[in-house]
Design a protein that fits this description.
The chain has one domain: P-loop containing nucleotide triphosphate hydrolases (Rossmann fold). It contains 7 helices and 7 strands; from the N terminus they run βαβαβαβααβαββα. Strands 3-2-4-5-1-6-7 form a 7-stranded mixed sheet, with helices on both faces. The radius of gyration is 17 Å and the shape is globular. β2, α2 and β3 form a beta-alpha-beta unit. It is α/β, with parallel strands linked by helices.
């Protein structure tokens, strides 16, 4: 993975829908770096299906990768992970946001009358802490964040689903602005959409 001259760690964002190949692509990027890799897992084993998913993901990863389980405080987890690794995979921002909402009880009382900026601010503030932390890390570190693109489907019928969709869209935008590379996964294929975006703007200039 090529490293650009910059201040702080390189951020790579991998976006896509369900089963689009996000995690596999992120792991391929990490493996091709030839560096020490750490994996930050945000999922929590709350039921049998999730326990099975976590076990299968863990078994598929190389044995020399270190794993940190952190459902909430991702900025601190990234700092800790970069102490022992050159490349860090954070998988995923989608699950982290769900954890964040319910840990703060943001999802407990949502209805049409209570959807306000308060439901956005705390999550976006945590993402800002993450991007600020990346700027303080050595430039030879790479952090790969996996996240879902959930804004392409139907509008959710319930209030919490709409708030979650909107906040995750803003989280993804914030990560994309800070990232050096943003890949959109389609049927297992990664498209470098940030490069295409920059080229399009350059042609218009």
């Amino acid at each position: 993975m090529a490293m650009n001259k910059q201040q702080g760690a390189q951020l790579v964002l991998v976006l896509g829908g369900a089963r689009s190949g996000k995690s596999t692509f992120a792991e391929q990027l990490a493996a091709h770096s030839n560096g020490m890799v750490a994996y930050i897992a945000t999922a929590q084993a709350n039921d049998d299906d999730m326990r099975d998913r976590i076990a299968r993901h863990r078994a598929a990863r190389p044995s020399d990768w270190s794993t940190l389980e952190e459902p909430l405080h991702i900025a601190d987890a990234v700092r800790r992970a970069t102490e022992c690794a050159n490349v860090v995979i954070l998988d995923c921002a989608t699950t982290w946001l769900s954890n964040w909402f319910f840990a703060r009880e943001d999802g407990a009382h949502l209805d049409e009358e209570t959807i306000t900026a308060q439901h956005y601010d705390s999550a976006l503030a945590e993402i800002k802490v993450l991007t600020q932390a990346l700027a303080t890390l050595p430039a030879d570190k790479t952090v790969i964040v996996v996240s879902n693109e959930v804004g392409l489907g139907i509008v959710p019928a319930y209030a919490l689903g709409r708030v979650y969709r909107d906040v995750l869209g803003l989280v993804n935008q914030q990560l994309a602005r800070a990232a050096q590379r943003v890949y959109l996964m389609i049927a297992g294929l990664g498209v470098d959409i940030k490069r295409l975006h920059e080229e399009a703007l350059g042609r218009r200039a």
